[in-house]
Predict the structure.
Amino acid sequence: MKKILVTGGAGFIGSHVIRLFVNRYPDYQIYNLDKLTYAGNLENLRDVDQKPNYHFIKGDIIDGDFIIGLFKKEQFDGVIHLAAESHVDRSIANPMEFIMANIVGTVNLLNAAKHIWKGHFEGKLFYHVSTDEVYGSLGDTGFFYEDTPYDPHSPYSASKASSDHLVRAYHDTYGLPMIISNCSNNYGPNQFPEKLIPLFINNIRHDKPLPVYGKGENVRDWLYVEDHAAAIDLIFHKGLVGETFNIGGHNEWKNIDLIKLLCRVMDEKLGRTKGKSEKLITYVTDRAGHDLRYAIDSSKLQKQLGWEPSLQFEEGIEKTVDWYLKNQAWLDNVTSGNYQKYYEEMYLNR
Ligand code: NAD
Ligand code: DAU
């Protein structure tokens, strides 16, 4: 019997991690701690929330007293920490929210784990889920490796870099058993439609402009979200304590090429004339400090633990588009209320 705390389990990646663990490990007790910000949605977990090994706790990682009380009460054996503010554009508008959730929130969890485990670290693990954005930006060639120096450019990536440093510092200073993984851009079902792929699927469906930042020449390395969850499972169980693993699918796409692919798939699925959705493409003011290119080398994970991404990108994009078209109620629900205000502030004068 293992008690595992997953933070941010009602968000995009967290919900896929929870589903995998709850279904795959019936003898574990999985606790999902989530504040349910705009990005957290319990609808993401409807298919597993009645299982006897799943428990939901509504709470804020910024509240240190609450976190220490929770760790005292539940005596977790492991933590998989995903809770974070995750959208770069929002971090440019409101950096302090990112400092609080991503840095202070992480330190609260580290303090609680250190306090409760009190040096009895055998069988315990603090797994910190991080991003490739901590490494900064690449030129036209090269890859991010596990030992690439950190060089974050946005308040989001700087806050994640800071949390990574703190996790390592608690390992080096107090011996806290930890693992960090740094993953590239995820896509798939349940992603909040502020991120490129679900935003553009939703806009195409509503015949709204597709706001391409700058010239659309930035490159991202895309991974299907279930492949990320599978990597987390593997690393959590088999990764060496103290290590870092890069996760990515060797699947680089220039934004504009990806957007054109998405338009083609959407035209087909919606029965539209070929080329109709591409007409929605609108070039807008670039993101401040926009990183040019991310590309992950994940050969350590592949060689040491035998992980491989399971899906080709074209197949993953089709699956993703199908999911959003089948789950229009989910999209409509998350784009009502505050979303309209967010959209206007982010895009109206761009
Ligand atoms: P998300 O924004 O979809 O979900 C974040 C979740 O954290 C939400 O459920 C939210 O309610 C919760 N949360 C936020 N602040 C909280 C707080 N103070 N207390 C408790 N819960 C809080 O994010 P995501 O895209 O699923 O990313 C999850 C993690 O993975 C993040 O740490 C992110 O940095 C990392 N990551 C994301 C990607 C990606 O492409 N999305 C890639 C690599 C790494
Ligand atoms: O690399 C991992 C990171 O990927 C994660 O750590 C972040 O949490 C996640 O949000 C993602 O960050 P990006 O900034 O790369 O993702 P986003 O979907 O916001 O943007 C992808 C690319 O598309 C980026 O180059 C900016 C561009 N873009 C984005 C939006 C929202 C546009 O051109 N127009 C848009 O409207």
